[in-house]
């Protein structure tokens, strides 16, 4: 890294760009060599050189320069310029030759191309030397004549100039010399400027310095880079974490430790056809400007081109390092970006969302503790400028809402605690669960808690009981209380008949959900968390493997999950042992049924219309044992039965609604029960 040109120095040069003396020397050197060569050609044509009749006689040409007094001054000046170039350690041409391993002949080619680019007046001189007014450009043959290479080959497609695109050629067809031109990027760099390669516009940008988080392993990354440089090894630092967690910011900070800047390259903006070329251009820009490339995006998993040697230090930001292809001659250093701590999130909200400073402290604390956002997520909320804490909480949920994709479905959460009709013990346990979910962030920040429970930071509850007893509603109430999204996991997209696919889908769910602001609901959880069976065939073995893997995922999960099941006995006991909250939902008793009837009818009809139905509600609640969901469905059916009859809702309509619900289970009210209900109601 010591030979790299710091980006801060380049920026200073751009603000006050002096032209390096070597550029003037390049033009003078080429002009002198061209004039001397032209003098030799004229002497040969005029027959003034005894024993030499061809201009391509290299030995005769060199002898002419030594013996002809007219060339003495040019020879001396050429020698002086060459010596100055060799002795000038700040010569950017020598720097380029060194970092790109150019041969002497390739450097002469670069000088010939650069001279005419810097001084277009050399074009006619080039044309005269090449015998055509149209050939006012540099060629391999012209370079060989000017620098005394004779018929040696200086240019080929496998050479460093061509491979790195420092000099480019155009094929003019058979018999025509190929024009060679210096790349504008190289010319600009030699003139003290560092600007983005035109082909990289929209693909790459310089990384901006950002304040660092204390939890970031900056010192570790810098130390590993330093060690690799001391051992002359190329290193690729693989920063592992979700988008927005600060991977690029960490890379930019590490680059600054070595007085360089990061060049951020979005691989998603590069299609497969352009990838090899743009990869070379990005690496070239980094080598020219002393930058460190940071590759990010979902397409970093592509095969890395081998046409050029990799940059000595580079970063790759990804989520799954196993998808990265290897780079020959490069050592990978994997670094996992830790989740931000509660204190860091508090500071990020203050710094990135300035308006939050004026909000009530309780609301700010809730945003920091309940929403485990990455630095990029909070920065995005800051850019959207929320007006109040409620809007900020909604934005926090929106930031992560789409990460599950088709694996989960977002559920509305319109219910609160007043909507739940549960036994006192179940309700109290559910409230304990919600309280722990809200307060757990600060608890798990304690070192003692993390040491004693290294795999217990997640919060999982099992809700069991017959259908319609309020398990899903309870999940909705908890999510609403926490101001978090509720996602029902789609088992149809999770469970697969193909070996390994179920485990892969489960891993995707838990890894993505672990960095979301959401509560997971596994409905019909017994389908996933079922008991392991005796192994009789390969299917049983793989099913048990999925169950074991799910056990590990559940232990390592750091979020909030609710498992709902109608069949507790079918769930593997190993899961239940790992779940701290197990709630049994039973069918409501008569008092609870009456409360549900009154709540549903009262909200739909209002107090005035509810009052005449109170006697009927008391009889129905006492006589008919149905679940809360069945009561809601019976009321809905009764309302439309009454509407069809153009009547006000009455007991007979409620009885008809109940009868319809019981019919779903193969039950029904007998005619005697129906008459008794009508009579008492």
From TrEMBL:
It comes from the Bacteria. Pfam families: AAA. CDD domains: RecA-like_protease. Residues 233-379, 457-589 form the AAA+ ATPase domain. InterPro entries: AAA+_ATPase, ATPase_AAA_core, P-loop_NTPase. One of its GO terms (molecular function) is ATP hydrolysis activity. PANTHER family: AAA+ ATPASE DOMAIN-CONTAINING PROTEIN, FAMILY ATPASE, PUTATIVE-RELATED. This is ATPase, AAA family protein. It comes from Enhygromyxa salina.
